[in-house]
């Protein structure tokens, strides 16, 4: 096997995660292609496009000042503009690489956003490459780009972007999935499933000589099915990723809302209160995010709350009958402990443990329920 084969394979397959990335960042009506007006091509409904060239290496930076990959990329873009395949005014020229290196000409191009800046960095590039002549491997590309089409290059540089991300391109897919609130435990499954589907779709089209294009609508249908499958298995605890801010906990303890007063009434202070505040805040974040993300709806949330309230009422009555020898504070503590250990589904899915405890504290805060047998009169005082 050729020693270059692994690097060549990476170069070809890098287009798949990049296509997935652009599809995840698309909207209704958008299309994404590979090997059409670039390695990856995205067209939006407003006519704007992204023409992306992907350059990879398993060893070092593939975009050095004298690399063929660098100058061939601009050669291809200028050729596409001259042929009428790309409209400069509607195109973002994106160069993606999986290896970083020393700052060079490509970075200067990326930093230039005005005509004046673009003109200057081209002049600087000419000085840096003053020793390049017609015997150099990059000459044909360099000569065409710099010497014969400088005006077009100036325009392209103003719409040029460089993206560098080490690896095989999947880390960018994982980042955008995290932004979409995919459970960290399911990121790998989602990435693999989506990438496999995109690869299959594109390969089947290439095999029958069709344009290797995927519409947003087809992609979204597949992704929605995967989301449904994941969400049917578990309820995501959104607070595991970012946690609860300590300042929020301290503020709750300071203002002492109803649910904390109710805990104080049965002798709960200190760490027990801090734990309750954490559960209360985590449950609120999850409840809001589940409804916002359409994982559950208002009716399901209301049913869950009603079931917890029914359990509290039945448990309260039982304790009042069977535990009369206990003090009122002790009976209140027993009631709280039973409720905290309650197992209750949300729809047909088990929630994170903080949800049941946190929802009970939310009900105590309204206040709809309480722990101390005389909780209503105590709150009035």
Radius of gyration: 30 Å
Question: Biggest sheet: strands, sense, closure?
Answer: 6 strands, mixed
Strand content: 5-15%
- Taking strands numbered 1, 2, ... along the chain, how are they ordered across the largest sheet? 5-4-3-2-1-6
Please give the number of β-strands.
6
How is this structure best described in words?
With 381 residues, the chain is an alpha/beta fold. The protein has two domains: 5-233, no CATH class; 239-380, no CATH class. The chain is 59% helix and 8% strand. The chain is built from 18 helices and six strands. It has helices spanning 5-13, 15-24, 68-83, 105-111, 115-128, 139-147, 150-157, 170-179, 187-207, 216-233, 239-242, 246-255, 258-265, 271-292, 298-322, 328-340, 353-365, 375-380, and strands spanning 31-34, 40-43, 49-55, 91-97, 160-164, 213-215. The protein has a six-stranded mixed beta sheet, sandwiched between helices. A hairpin with a 5-residue loop joins strand 2 (40-43) and strand 3. It is elongated. The termini are far apart.
